Amino acid sequence: MSQRIPATLIAGDGVGPEIVETALAAFDALGNPFEWDTQVAGLAGVEAAGDPLPAATLASIRRTRLALKGPLETPSGGGYRSSNVRLREEFKLYANLRPARTIVPGGRFDNIDLVVVRENLEGLYIGHELYIPIDDDPHAVAMATGVNTRQGSRRLLEFAFAHAVATGRKKVAIVHKANIMKALTGIFLETGIELYERKYKNQFALETVIIDACAMKLVLNPWQFDVLVTTNLFGDILSDLVAGLVGGLGMTPGGNIGADAAIFEAVHGSAPDIAGKGVANPTALLLAAAMMLEHSGLHGEATRLRNAISATLNTDHVRTGDLGGKSSTGEFTRALVARIKNG
Ligand code: NAD
Description:
The protein is of the alpha/beta class. The protein has helices spanning 16-29, 42-49, 55-64, 83-90, 150-166, 186-200, 211-220, 232-245, 283-295, 299-315, 329-342, and strands spanning 5-10, 34-39, 66-69, 95-101, 113-119, 123-134, 137-147, 171-176, 205-210, 227-230, 253-257, 262-266. The longest helix has 17 residues, at 150-166.
């Protein structure tokens, strides 16, 4: 390995430190491509610095522009905002990239290979909400404002289309609800069609699908889709739907990518019910690590890691309890490292 790439490491809460240990063992076996700056956030951040997103953690990501993070708990009480939302806003992480690939065959759907690209900063998730009291009911009326901008839509669509081309995808579907929310999701649809016609026309096929029909089609025949690109709320729902197609959140990585940084994570939470027991499945975080390697241009290392994960699960049959196996996180880690070194 020539020059190691500076990156921030946040172990996170609950099972975070256990699965991060597996990821570090995997990176070690791959020749240590990253030079880690270890920081804290979430509950660990509150304990260490009185803030779920301490200034030192933000400064580290500002410097490295690249991070791998375990799941973070938002402390209830104390008025803390979600660290994940704050990170997205702070580093303008406008694209949420959620690949869903079948790794363990024999589930309800085999051979799934889909990507959801979700707009991460705009839409109905901007938090402009209010109640209007009437008579003695303080919650008589609830209102939320959604905001999608041309510029925000375009940069996300540009990211999704460029990602489709760079990864050799054949089809992109713009998912919307412009038949009802004509302005809010219509702007996203019209911007996507315009961008495609102007710049991407012969590089992949474009289709447009209404969100409700898309949800049904994904369950009936998920293989008809390739890349799905959509606004914040629809993307949140669809990315969990496609995670379900490949065995649930324990198998799904995510990348939050933006103008100022890229942060990779497992999609699942801190799993407090199994934390400290040494039984957590590190697969989702390892797949996030593979995305991070790819993002850093280390395609060979990413492929070696993915192949080792698949061989550990499917050839060695080393699986944690959530996948019906009996192996501990430590046993999985040892088998994975052997596969990386010998594979
Ligand atoms: P969760 O994903 O932590 O757990 C849901 C279920 O899945 C639990 O039964 C858990 O044991 C199991 N599970 C999750 N990850 C697993 C793994 N790697 N191996 C084996 N089993 C696993 O969801 P939750 O219980 O709703 O949330 C717990 C905490 O995590 C909350 O504080 C929540 O806010 C936080 N959270 C953080 C993130 C993030 O940082 N990206 C995402 C979701 C939830």
